[in-house]
Design a protein that fits this description.
The protein is of the alpha/beta class. Helices cover about 40% and strands about 10% of the residues.
Length: about 400
């Protein structure tokens, strides 16, 4: 779907935002303000609804609350929390199991909490500045679980942390630990029976903790693994592994990591899997590792959806976008000092731009905290202590 020559998220109307569900009051909002009723629909249930209703669900890759909130602002139906991006943003290193499960689980917890808070702050807008409320749906968060950070019991502990964090789902891969990014050489696979055992632990712990709807994505790196218990290699191994995982009845989606953007293997994998499982839902990493700009006919999201890939994501979308934008600012500051930042603000405040972060006070919810703080008796909060808004000189 496109509008004015630009792609927009799947399932969104021409203004680029999904129409919110029924708006209802919340005790965390002042009188007269509303949030979508879906606020109280569990993220796993919401994700399952989207997968059932839409031709595909696209989720941009994020790595912290801030980038997830931006994806929410622009109306994307789901968000993918990338392990590689988290490794770069949290550890400052690469994707080779250099962080622990409790670390990424805590980041996921903070992100799901931030999305709920962001819904409240946007529901208020800034009445004193004439900025209207913006009702936003909370996108379900799918989180990288890598290889489970150990054996089946490590998977179980991580699953409990993810479920209690409010995560909608997670993917688990069949690599030997310590794992590595699917596009880094030297991958090895665990025995398929061990992988099924990990999937079983993930499903049973999620159910035991109270979320039988937790969405599980089983991933295989069979296409490019250099070592595996089976003598078979390449795409046939990935297909065989995928079928075994689906035979278990445990995963909701199946993800095969491909080494290139080539169409043939993607189409073959989908076709072979759906011969036995016609209703199988697949996941696809429209990977930042591929030079899509050099591909004369890159796979489109719509084409992938037609092949059965119902969950599509770009793992390192936020990392690459932030790297590009901040690098350009740093270059401008180095070359033109303060004028480099003046140029940034001219772009931020250009007429017709819809950039929520140009007012960091609005984005972070200062108007909300002043408005609600007074109602809750918080010290030095309330509209009577807020400074007069001077839009012509300050954000």
């Amino acid at each position: 779907m496109t509008t004015q020559g630009h792609s927009i998220p799947n399932g969104l109307p021409s203004n680029g935002r999904r129409a919110p569900s029924e708006l209802v009051p919340s005790p965390l909002l002042p009188e007269g303000f509303r949030v979508p009723a879906s606020r109280w629909t569990h993220p796993s249930v919401r994700l399952r609804q989207l997968l059932a209703e839409e031709p595909y669900v696209f989720a941009p890759g994020v790595y912290d609350p801030y980038t997830a909130q931006l994806a929410m602002y622009y109306g994307f139906p789901a968000v993918y929390f990338s392990g590689y991006s988290f490794a770069m943003g949290h550890v400052g290193s690469t994707d080779m199991d250099l962080y622990a499960g409790v670390e990424i689980a805590d980041a996921a917890r903070r992100t799901t909490s931030a999305l709920r808070k962001f819904q409240l702050t946007m529901a208020v807008g800034d009445p004193d500045a004439g900025i209207p409320p913006k009702p936003l749906e909370i996108p379900p968060l799918v989180v990288d679980m890598d290889g489970g950070y150990g054996n089946a019991f490590n998977v179980g502990r991580t699953a409990e942390l993810y479920v209690t964090a409010g995560v909608a789902g997670a993917h688990l891969e069949d690599q030997v630990l310590p794992k590595r990014c699917g596009h880094i050489a030297g991958k090895a696979l665990i025995d398929a029976r061990e992988m099924v055992g990990k999937l079983r632990m993930l499903r049973h712990v999620a159910t035991d903790v109270g979320n039988p709807d937790f969405v599980i994505i089983a991933r295989t790196d069979g296409v490019s693994a250099v070592d595996a218990p089976e003598p078979l290699r390449g795409l046939p191994l990935a297909i065989e592994r995928g079928l075994r995982y689906l035979d278990s009845g445990l995963p909701d989606l199946l993800w095969c990591e491909f080494p290139t953007s080539e169409r043939g293997p993607v189409e073959t994998f989908a076709s072979e899997i759906r011969k036995r499982f016609p209703q199988a839902q697949l996941a696809f990493n429209w990977s930042s590792s591929f030079k899509w700009h050099q591909d004369p006919h890159p796979l489109t999201f719509a084409e992938l959806g037609a092949l059965g890939f119902r969950f599509i994501f770009i793992t390192l979308a936020a990392i690459h976008a932030n790297g590009l934008g901040f690098s350009r600012l740093l270059q401008a500051l180095a070359e033109r000092q303060e004028q480099g930042y003046v140029e940034l603000q001219r772009q931020e405040w250009a007429e017709g731009e819809d950039l929520p972060t140009r007012s960091h006070h609005l984005f972070s919810g200062v108007p909300y905290h002043h408005l609600v703080g007074g109602a809750y008796g918080a010290a030095r909060l309330g509209r009577e202590v807020a400074e007069a808004h001077r839009e012509e000189t300050a954000v």
